[in-house]
């Protein structure tokens, strides 16, 4: 896992400073989600991070979350957006425990759209977008097709929203129930 920013003081003391953190890259390439060298954090940003960090640490001890998040984290450090896109969707499959589903596209689209939507209308719009993006991921995997960087960015945004919801809700998406043998 990479830390995308450094500050001159501990996180808990950052609210007493000017709130500036320096972004850095720990690899020679990055797909481009960092927009600048400095980020000015609001007091609200710092309080969210201070509240959420213990939750994130607890989730780092959960195998499913940690596998999904570490794969998601690698997506922006990939050499190609196609590889990054595959990693994003692999992370989503793991986070929602959908890797072994028979109708994987429908299962992933339903689970992700339900988890990131704020209304039934939003869920329906998200479902269609997610289905289109997941199908583009399939064309990368099965026919070696290129992907538009905007589609990578949209896939990243959906995955990021899912991980943020896990942290904000302090709860993982439900795991698939497997029958006892």
Describe this entry's structure for a reader.
The protein folds into two domains: 5-56, no CATH class; 59-169. The mean pLDDT is 84. The longest helix is centred in the last third of the chain and has 24 residues, at 120-143. By secondary structure, it is mostly helical. It is built from six helices and three strands. Helix 3 packs across helix 5 and helix 5 (120-143) packs across helix 6 (149-169).
Poorly predicted parts? none
Based on secondary structure, the structural category is: mainly alpha
What level of helicity do the residues show?
A: 55-70%
What topology, given as strand order, has the largest sheet? 1-2-3
In whole angstroms, the N-to-C terminal distance is 36 Å
Largest sheet: 3 strands, antiparallel
Tally the helices.
6
Shape: globular
The arrangement of helices and strands along the chain is EEEHHHHHH
Which percent band covers the strand fraction? under 5%
Mean pLDDT rating? 84
**What is the CA-based Rg, rounded?**
17 Å
Number of strands: 3
Short overview:
By secondary structure, the chain is mainly α. Helices cover 57% and strands 5% of the residues.
